[in-house]
Amino acid sequence: MPPTATLAPALPETGWPPPYLLYLGNAPDHLAAKTARGLAQWRPQWCVGQFRGPDCRTTLGLPDMGFEEAVAAGANTMIVGVANAGGRMDAGTVQDVVAALDAGMNIASGLHQRLSSHPAIVEAAGRNGRCLFDARQPPPLAVGNGARRAGRRLLTVGTDCSVGKMYATLAIERELQARGVRADFRATGQTGIFVAGAGVPIDAVVADFISGAAEWISPAREDGGWDLIEGQGSLFHPSYAGVSLGLLHGSQADALVLCHEPGRAHMRGLPHYPVPDLKACLEANLQAARLTNPDVIAVGVAANTSHAPDAETAARQCREIEDALGLPCEDPVRTGTARIVDRLQSCFAD
């Protein structure tokens, strides 16, 4: 069941005004457009269409639009919704951004290479009176201190990158809110920041400040609610384990949800590294989290079964994970997270 739009805030707090045109450019595959896809999935009421280049290999199922057509349809901002290794804009993307600015849209991007680093983009924004928004611009931060703070926090962790940590966190937020529980999604990646309208781009934070960023995004709270912190990377991914560890320490999580894609053969982008054993991965995350919260527990597994051929296969994959770990396992998109939240609430019933 797709997420409903009723829980979305009316406007993003950070200022990139909807409605949006989602830019896919020449994305070569599904994952290359994950930022645009996340917005289309979780905030469909903000999205009027998509722009695809001639070599684009994916679609969001939204109307294809040119830049002037999108403005006529009400688009205020074009979101550069692609992700690539290194997070850079090629010459074609820069040209398209300039054309979108000339058509009258603001531009928001989650790439590492900032819009403001391109003179042609800056000049086009100036001559058209348009605004540029870079989601990967972290706020001023302090180093983490590990001091105990009030409130409850849940962190999603993963066996690998791109296994559905943001989707799982948002689905848990939706389930808790539907039960009348105060719960807030805390975004740590560019897609999550666009969905939430606020957050900290954890992979753009200087290493010494990663745990401090997690503390900043989930400060002490006294209302009995939950901060639901979007995980990043994996402790078992040689490229991104440092970000994962910093989040585990700074989040001071009370609960972890392990995210996994059944059937994935190797770590994303690293065919020479196999996906870790689920038990070993979960225990490593718990052990790391105990540095700042010795009482942390695991409450469930979110399985990304999007590559399963049918619902029966997906259900079997979840049952096998449940048998292996003794935790409820659900696909947040296919079936929701009711059983994971049941476990969470039963473990923290005070």
From TrEMBL:
Q: Where in this chain does the record put each D-glutamate N-acetyltransferase-like C-terminal domain?
A: 144-341
| Annotated D-glutamate N-acetyltransferase-like N-terminal domain residues | 61-138
The family database entries (InterPro entries) matched by this protein are listed as: DgcN-like, DgcN-like_C, DgcN-like_N, P-loop_NTPase
**SUPFAM superfamilies xrefs:** P-loop containing nucleoside triphosphate hydrolases
Q: Please give the name of this protein.
A: DUF1611 domain-containing protein
Query: Source species, please?
Result: Luteimonas lutimaris
